[in-house]
User: What shape does this take?
Amino acid sequence: MAKLPERMMARSGTFYCRIWVPTDIAPIYGRKIVVRSLRTKDLKTAKSRLARKSVELDNQFDEIRADQVAVDDHGAAVPQDSRTIRTRFSEIAREHAITASDREFVRRAEFFNQATAEPARFWRGEFGPLPAPADFGHEEQDAYTYFDHLVAEGDLEKIVAFINRFRLSKRIKILQGMRATGNLAEFVATAKDRIPGMNRPDAIALGRLLLQDELDALRAIAEGQPDPSLGDLRAGNFRQVENPEAPSRSLPTVPTAKPISLDELFERWEAETDPSASTLSSWRGIMRDLKSFVGDKADDITRIAAEDIVGWKDKLVKANKAAATISRGYLGCARALFRFAVANRLAASDPSQGIKVARKTKAGKKMLGYSGEEVARLLDLASNASDPWKKWLPWLAAATGSRIGEVAQLHGSHVFKEDGYQVVKIMPASDAGSLKNAESERTVPIHPALLTAGFLEFVAEKGQGPLFYGRSSGDPKRKHASKGVANRLASWIRKNGFSDPRKAPNHALRHWFKTEASRVGISDSVADAIQGHTDSSSSGVYRHIGLALMASALEKIELPPRRGVSLDA
Assistant: This one.
């Protein structure tokens, strides 16, 4: 590389401005050298930004010199020596950062104890609001998808860990915003508490250091620095990252041992995260596709570059995969695995970071629900079927708006009487069945049409065990037997004339139920409770829909519906 201009340096391809602090103000400024990223790898752009950054820092140095004559808020001289005061700033800021770090770990410990001791109060948000879709920007939807996945898995410790990271990231963003806008009110007040009587210029100068050092400390926690107790910070080395000449204490990021393959990475991730059988099944297929695309690079994950992931994504787009499928499924899987590799020091970086699908869903592609006439025809077809799963699953889906997978794993023990109502309990099957998320588990009154059709008699005949499959392996890492039943039902429905590609043979019933509920005047909150949909509103946390209200609503839904009523959702 050609010789760089004075005050410029490069690190990992990115250019930085590096300026020595003048010796006369270095004790006041708190360091001997300042390093600021120019946020570019293009030399021409870096040179332009270097000039602006140099002027900006030189102006800061001049302002500090000008402030050496201490004045009060009215501009009058004060007897206290500002130079003497400012020599204490570095130590005060360091102590503040240590306090902020300690406070974060105390908060985490208390939150964990509260959540694990009283999970019901945790889920109601009594220990702090839980993440909601509105809390995540467009670029963060993968994060919310991952959180939704954790909720479906039901592992409380992993959920608490995610929320801890989420809350920490929000505080970091707030601090970054305060620094960018110059909103130092919180830290100026803290500065004045530490040194009463300090003039405003000094308070601002200390406030700026307090903000920056707290931000550095929280970033260290978020990035998983080797010493979470801030040993380096306590020793006064917390600005080491800004001093390229200081010796590095961090451990090597990439191991020198035998390379890790994609298969080995997947096995390690699986052993540590214990994902659901459905996730394992779909992600194994995604890994096979990625391995096929990258070829022999699959034998060493450190050889897989961002360009490879972009090429893989482009291949999926050309194959007409849905944008949501690529983003949440394929890229979501890759991101989770590579982030796991980085966190466990198996790779230096995540090659999938920042890669996304820009394509939007086009008109004419959105999935639809059945019309009333189609539902009536399907229920007639089901009523004449001899196999129990063909006969009852369409009726259950139409009567509750459930996912087919939820009712396909029903046991006889899930059907009982509660508060005077015959109900069905939608819950994970005891032989390693699963549901999509926490809201999916619910108790729903049985629609009068099913009672008339003899559903309770069928359940009594089958007994307490599975209603629609023989038995499952009980292995949570294998597909549950009910999945095969759901797939066979979809094929059977297709073969009987329901061939519209925009109407999923099973799921179109769920679309129909939601639309029909709206048509007959059932509120969204009640329909959500019946169907197990997530209510993301703040009031949804406090709203509890009882059986009487659900039963009254279900009576409004006519089964089979009147023919000729078109209700495409």
